[in-house]
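[09:14] KT: can someone run the structure on this one? pasting the chain below
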Amino acid sequence: MAGKDASVLTISPDGPLRGWITTFGALAGSGFRRYTTYRQATIAGTFTNVVFGYLRCYVLLAVAASALGGRPGGYDAEQLATYVWFGQGLLSVVLLWGWAELAERIRTGDVAADLLRPVSPLTAYLAADLGRAAHAMLTRFVVPVVVGALCFPLHLPQRWTTVPLFLVSVLLAVVVSFGCRYLVNATAYWLHDARGPILLWVLGAGVLGGLYFPLRLLPHELALTLWLATPMPSILQTPLDVAAERDGLALQAGLVALQAVWAVALLALAWFVQKRAERRLVVQGG
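[09:31] RB: done, structure tokens below
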């Protein structure tokens, strides 16, 4: 997480806010550059997302064709196609699974070195994750959406506010996903092996997050409960509904505001858990 020049990651006492912003930006940039080196993985992952996009799109279009009125869950065929292809693009941006770096460093004890650095692990990992998401947005998001637009009729935005609201929603979705992943990884401070919680996260994130099917297909009461009681729908369902313009502007803005609440709550909880974990390490002599 540290840069090559340690002075870059030092927050100046003369300008703590400016120093923090500079440090955060440097860490985010290093996260972006790190993933630019994985060119073959990027190409292979994008190809896989496109293939599964075809499968998911045809399944949901078949559901729309067989549904009464042709609008399952309130989506028409174009909105469902938009939901699928934007979802395939965002899958690598929000990163539902595949991150266990913190848990591994806790297991091996390398996290002790992270705690000696001038930037907390929570800040460093968040900045790196935002850099990773920016790289994925420029590479693995664009290709599936373009392929989907060439092969299927996608829903075009009818309101100019949809594009900026979608971008804000994606940013908040990345933060919410990061908060969940960080908390799941942090269980290794107490369990020493977080493979169990990580497996539960992998199994639940796709279903409850809206990846496999829109949560609006569930009974209204159940979908509403998931939205209000868990952060899962804020990871994929909300930005995809914004892109497909499933709801009116007021409701869309409300869902994005709910995303912001979950993002702040999860970061605050992650900060609290990290502090408790550091106290635990000190008590144990770590």
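[09:33] KT: thanks! The chain is about 70% helix and 0% strand.
[09:34] RB: yep, looked fine to me
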